[in-house]
């Protein structure tokens, strides 16, 4: 299966039923780290694996275990990218180093997808999810967004900061864009599709955590990691609900 066909099909699955999206950040002692977004659509495979298999035809008869970079995908779509504006091309270039891993098995009722990249400083991740929504601009992919239709494009600007003493995740809502979306009838359909989906944040730090501003944060035994679960509806409609600060022990 071609990279773009596989990715497009994966995004389609993400829009159909309940999925769990997990945003992972691991920060090392020197400030470098890894960022990833995982999507678990196994619930859909459990409910409709046979129907999905028939849509995929011959590809459904074999398990898929695929790993590729967006750089490879962009090479496949280079003609379409060349027609895009310089600004859009620049946005896509930010995604080149992302590695996409997909595991799908109709027999095992499994569908897992991960987009991951390394970073030298957490500040590099500013608006990374919104940048990923630039994939929608690729020719022939009007309804395709990373990990599902419109994923990442929740009408906010997301930033991360970390200085060794404090970590902050902050989304600033574009109220004008959000108002426009709420007027769009497609928004109701999108809300319905993601009503039973969850958005989970899992962050791992090199220091013990003193406190987190979100009272629902769960700590690991060593207090160096936190997990916070939200509804996907909150992620899309109230992205500032996912804002929080983490303070570390000295």
TrEMBL record:
<keyword id="KW-0732">Signal</keyword>
<protein>
    <recommendedName>
        <fullName>Lipoprotein</fullName>
    </recommendedName>
</protein>
<feature type="signal peptide">
    <location>
        <begin position="1"/>
        <end position="22"/>
    </location>
</feature>
């Amino acid at each position: 299966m071609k990279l773009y066909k596989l990715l497009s099909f994966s995004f389609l699955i993400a829009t159909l039923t309940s999925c769990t999206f997990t945003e992972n950040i691991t920060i090392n002692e020197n400030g470098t780290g890894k960022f990833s977004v995982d999507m678990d659509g196994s619930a859909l495979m459990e409910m409709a694996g046979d129907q999905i298999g028939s849509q995929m035809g011959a590809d459904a008869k074999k398990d898929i275990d695929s790993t590729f970079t967006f750089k490879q995908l962009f090479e496949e779509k280079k003609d379409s990218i060349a027609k895009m504006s310089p600004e859009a091309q620049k946005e896509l270039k930010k995604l080149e180093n992302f590695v996409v891993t997909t595991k799908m098995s109709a027999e095992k009722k499994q569908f897992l997808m991960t987009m991951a990249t390394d970073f030298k400083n957490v500040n590099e991740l500013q608006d990374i999810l919104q940048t990923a929504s630039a994939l929608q601009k690729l020719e022939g992919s009007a309804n395709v967004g990373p990990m599902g239709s419109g994923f990442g494009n929740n009408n906010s600007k997301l930033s991360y900061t970390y200085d060794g003493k404090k970590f902050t995740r902050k989304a600033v809502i574009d109220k004008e864009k959000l108002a426009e979306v709420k007027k769009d009838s497609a928004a109701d359909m999108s809300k319905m599709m993601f009503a039973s989906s969850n958005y989970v944040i899992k962050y791992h730090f090199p220091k013990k955590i003193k406190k987190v501003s979100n009272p629902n944060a769960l700590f690991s035994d060593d207090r160096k990691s936190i997990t916070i679960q939200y509804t996907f509806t909150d992620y899309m409609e109230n992205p500032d609900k996912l804002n929080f600060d983490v303070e570390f022990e000295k």
